[in-house]
Design goal:
7 strands, two-stranded parallel ribbon, 213 residues, alpha/beta
Length: 213
């Protein structure tokens, strides 16, 4: 009898996993290879995913769902950095610090009256935050220049939203946020890291020499 129930549970979990996986498989990966590379006068570019779950001081009713999204925010930022940033050589190094890449599920207040039972109310709000630094470090490891971009997006869904509808909303929200980041972070880099960005028409680095004050 125990073996029978164990088999039923295993089959149920397998079916759930296949269904859930098929939902994820329908979504394309974001790519940035068709954008021009940003060539930095640095020796290496390190991607530092400092963001970790759970974030401190979150209310108990707020949940992390970024790891459930078909388009993982942290991995999307990592892919952006790998495809758009290029180390062209030099004495300095660069670091991409992913400070935050969270998607939080926040419950919304509902009508608890008798009439509320017949309403299709908004059930949850999903808050997405992308916080990314691109830093240049001297040979001693000290940050000498940095650029930052913070992108925030939110969307609210009704209680009746299906898993597929929820995944669609997560994907579109993350896709739009990454489009914003793809525009805002390079602009910040050209403003604050311009000394370390190679100009295609110049063909050489304008970064300061090692030891320059």
């Amino acid at each position: 009898m125990i073996r029978k129930y164990a088999t039923i549970i295993a089959i149920s979990m397998l079916v759930w996993g296949i269904t859930y996986g098929q939902g994820f498989a329908q979504y394309p990966e974001l790519t940035y290879k068709h954008y021009p590379s940003i060539r930095l006068a640095v020796n290496t570019i390190v991607i530092d995913q400092t963001y970790r779950q759970p974030m401190p001081n979150l209310p108990i009713e707020v949940e992390h769902v970024d790891h459930l999204s078909p388009l993982n925010p942290s991995q999307s930022i990592k892919r952006w950095a790998e495809q758009r940033l290029q180390a062209a050589g030099g004495d300095y190094n660069a670091r991409v610090a992913i400070i935050e890449a969270s998607m939080l599920k926040v419950p919304l207040e509902k009508d608890e009256s008798f009439i509320g039972w017949f309403k299709d109310e908004l059930g949850h709000r999903y808050d997405l935050t992308l916080d990314v630094f691109v830093e240049v470090l001297d040979p001693r490891g000290f940050v000498v220049a940095s650029a930052n971009s913070v992108v925030r997006r939110s969307i609210s869904l009704p209680e009746s939203a299906s898993l597929a509808e929820t995944q669609d909303a997560w994907f579109k929200m993350t896709e739009t946020a990454m489009q914003d980041l793809n525009e805002e972070l390079p602009n910040a880099m050209y403003e604050y890291l311009g000394l370390f960005i190679l100009k295609d028409w110049e063909g050489e680095s304008v970064a300061p020499e090692t030891g320059q004050e």
